[in-house]
Amino acid sequence: LADLLEGFKSADPVVQEKALAETEERLRDSEAGPEEECRTKVNKTVINTRAPVRLSRDFLAALEKDARERAKRRKRNERLANALKEKGNDAFRRGDYATAIQKYTEGLEKLKDQQQLYTNRAQAYLKMHEYEKAIGDCNWALKCDEKCIKAHFLMGKAHLALKHFSESRQCYQKILDIDPQKKSLFKDCINEVNLEEKRMNEEEKALKEFQSGKFTALSIKELLQKLDKPDQNILYYSGGIRVLTGAMKDCTEQTLFRTNDGFSIINDNEVIRRGFSAERKNTAEVDLSISLLFLWQAVCAGNEENQRLLLTHPDMNVQLSKLLSSGVPEIQKETLALISLYSETEYGRRLLVRHQDLSRWLQILMMFINNPDGRASSAMNILADLTKEESFKIQSRMEFSTAVLPLFSQLLVSAKQVNGTALARCIGIVGDLCTDRAVRKKMADCQECWQACLKLVDECLPGGSTPEYQECLFAVLGLMMNLLLESSAAIQCFALDISGRCMSLLSSKDGRIVTRALGVLSRILPASSSAVEEVVKGGVVKKMIKILKAGGQITSNYAIRTLSICTKSNSQAQEEVVKSDKRFGVLLKLLNSENEIIVGNAAFCLGHCLVVPGAAASLLNSNVVMVLLKHAGGDATNTSVQENAAIALGRLCTAEPRHIFQLRELNGMAILNSSMKYLHSV
């Protein structure tokens, strides 16, 4: 067969003819075989003896071209995948496991059969305690290379974390089967599995002992005495604490726990204290810590005195933040539940502020947004509660620029890889923190923060995002509005970009998004004349007139402010207002608004548009003189509204003197004369 293929490839026509003849002979031989009676097996193809030479050459050329192109594409994809792998490795080394997973995933989109990307992502999943996903990636890595030792090793660790002891042992045994020389390295891994399985069995035994009739019948005092027994296995204490937790039925048991010195468990028992305070906890110490957290929740629920005693315990100031940062999901979950007991009440929040160093809590709690489970929601609930306390805002200033802002910016950039609902809440909470001038100023000066906000907006511009992601957009627009209360070099730097994004968002079908985009636009335009010029070119005047015709007080407020800024210095905007708002029908309606801010901006806008030839004459048969006179004469309580109305009145009569006749009839000449001083000053 190989000779035949070589014959077809030959450039010699004689050799090709010979190969073709031999092929026909073989086909005839196969037709004469034992299956001859089956007509469906007979090949009745008529072969043109002249055409195949040309066709086979074209066909082979096409195959070779396709192979070259595929090799070229693969080489390019390999480069891209390796670059993304290195970015993932950098993120992994920094401890940013969510970003590492994102980069490895992007690499696999380029090259689906790169084993290293699967094992690296599995390792990142292990760090995030997403063990099932780690096992899945290890399986894919083994499909790429069934002898991949790293895949077997990581899978063994994941199975052990899930307490799949048999599967974990099998993974380590496969490593020894692949390379027996590594026995000394992985023998300890198998021993660890055996010890963990034994420990779990002992824990179950200890818990059953405590749950037996003779222990459950004991009083709170007697149970505490049992726990005071020294030199017992840590599992004994874990089981006892769980039984004690179950005995907390109401405030009576809570009081008995306190009066029998139950809070001394941490200090007086060395095994409990050491296990609870351990930096890197083993499984038994993790179980002990979770048992204690359950106990404290039961003891402190609705009991202010117990809450005070626990929080004033010497170890708790350090331990709560350590437990939150432990990286163990169950410990974090129960620590958040305990803190929630405090943050939900004013008394509890004051205890936290008084007895805890909260300077790092904003950063620690924000990091839970990377988690897809309930921890993210719990952390945001606590943050929302804490922001009600002015002392928390003051403490948060300490590490805001160095720790919180970089983390927050990264969360915005990675919005689609984190918990979207929690991120939207986090953005809103940071917006609330911006009521603190010091915090707001730091954010407004941060270029990375503005870049991250714009990146999030860009993700939503196509309109294909999920509802939770739309909530993120809504929240970030609100945050931008708060930050624009400040003026900074960073704001001026991004003014063009921000105004451009807002213009795009005005076509959104979500009215809330449109309103906030208008708000941002009205606050960013004063920072840049270039931004004003660009939005005017982009048709902002027609959009604002259309919005103003539709009504709505909040949107009208933002829209007329935007128009007043544009018409202040841009002649094209002035001309477009005159053209789009026939006889100033929209502006006249706004001048009769009950909202003085809207009235003031409408008068300001009108005053600038009256310089357009013919604009003042178009108002001859309207009541504009009477309306402006009313506001300029003192009906408006805001002096800036009075000034804007007086300026508009002066420009009206200067541009079209015939309005003076109506002004005389209304006895308004004195007001006109006083308004002239404003005209000379602008």
TrEMBL record:
The family database entries (SUPFAM superfamilies) matched by this protein are listed as: ARM repeat, TPR-like
Name one process (GO BP) from the record.
Answer: axonemal dynein complex assembly
Which GO cellular component term is one of those annotated? cytoplasm
Start and end residues of the TPR repeats are 149-182
What does the UniProt keyword field contain? Repeat, TPR repeat
PANTHER family (UniProt xref): TETRATRICOPEPTIDE REPEAT PROTEIN 12
- Name of the protein: TTC12 protein
Q: What is the lineage of its organism?
A: Eukaryota, Metazoa, Chordata, Craniata, Vertebrata
Chain's gene name: Ttc12
